[in-house]
Amino acid sequence: MQFFGGSEISPSLPAPTASGNNALMMYVFNRNGICLLYREWNRPLRTLNAQQDHKLMFGLLFSLKSLTAKMDPTSMDKGNLGVPQLPRQGCSFHSFHTNTYKLSFMETPSGIKIILVTHPRTGDLREPLKYIYNLYVEHVVKNPLYTPGTLIK
Amino acid sequence: MAPVAPRSGDAIFANVERVNAELFTLTYGAIVRQLLTDLEEVEEVNKQLDEMGYNIGVRLIDEFLAKSNVSRCVDFKETAEVIAKVGFKMFLGITATVTNWDADGTSCSLVLEDNPLVDFVELPDTCQGLYYCNILSGVIRGGLEMVSMKTEVTWLRDMLRGDDAYELQVKLLKQVPEEYPYKDDE
């Protein structure tokens, strides 16, 4: 089952490049760290094999979430870094960007994490990420032949 | 960009694709009837309905979160309110009321005045121990487990057994924090 082609999810926000497609890579993880979906459209440099790449990405996000929650200046002290958080605590970051790419992230309360790596000048991607989540729900979750926790084919 | 506010149950119910209520009720009745014929033991059927509900709940939670835009609930009280007002409205078209909070806020009752699953249903004498709507308790348990809350859901009152309303007791056993799934040495 084809999930969807790359052109559907290009953010329709202006970008300096001439081509329409901004997205470089996409990952979807579930709460146990299993990578449910990985798609790439334009990735010139590849450093690790797929397994390690997924683990690295998941670990990065897990730690970033933890770090951003602990450094939150608007909330009460919560304990040391490294302690697993209770579900209601903590804020969640949306994106970070470097000089070569921008990574946007969305996590649902049920643990599904959607990550989009795009061109650095791309605007706020929260709406497109929500749209992708809706697509996930419509086609993956409602598919009776799909077992939750396995790869999306 | 301002965050999108959570949508009310009525708004979502108006937008969602709906099926005929009678078709839904009759299909559910056929499922329970078939389970009774296959398994014959009322306890087994109760357990099987709960399992089925759990599997449904695990998937339903994603659809619920996607359509209703609720953010993370701060505590269990808010969770129960959201289930009663938004969840039940969105999927079954009814609203439940939340009552009977216990002292530490970990257990409450959801009271349903009408229940579309039990239209036209009467329990015969041979099936007196059957919890006809046990699938609902499984759904709630499955859904809450996917948002890191381990709960226990039981039926307190059941109209098919002669009470005046349906009452579900939802008890929070514990909140499971998110853990890093990979082992350090791998």
Question: What low-confidence regions of chain B span 5 or more consecutive residues with pLDDT below 50?
Answer: none
Number of helices of chain B: 5
Approximately how much beta-strand content do the residues of chain A carry?
Answer: 15-25%
Shape of chain A: globular
Q: Spans of chain A with pLDDT under 50 lasting ≥5 residues?
A: 1-20
What is the overall shape of chain B? globular
Largest interface, Cβ cutoff 8 Å = A-B, 28 and 29 residues
Secondary structure class of chain B reads alpha+beta
Written account of the structure:
The complex is a heterodimer of chains A (153) and B (186). Helix content of chain A is 24%, strand content 18%. Chain A starts with 22 loop residues before the first strand and ends in a 12-residue tail after the last helix. Chain A has 153 residues and is an alpha+beta fold. Chain A contains 2 helices and 5 strands; from the N terminus they run ββαβββα. Chain A has a 5-stranded antiparallel beta sheet with strand order 2-1-5-4-3, sandwiched between helices. With 186 residues, chain B is of the alpha+beta class. Chain B is built from 5 helices and 4 strands, in the order H-H-H-H-E-E-H-E-E. Chain B has helices at residues 9-15, 21-39, 42-68, 76-92, 134-146; strands spanning 96-99, 107-112, 149-157, 166-175. In chain B, strands 1-2-4-3 form a 4-stranded antiparallel beta sheet, with helices on one face. Chain B is globular and about 45 Å long. Chain B starts with 8 loop residues before the first helix and ends in an 11-residue tail after the last strand.
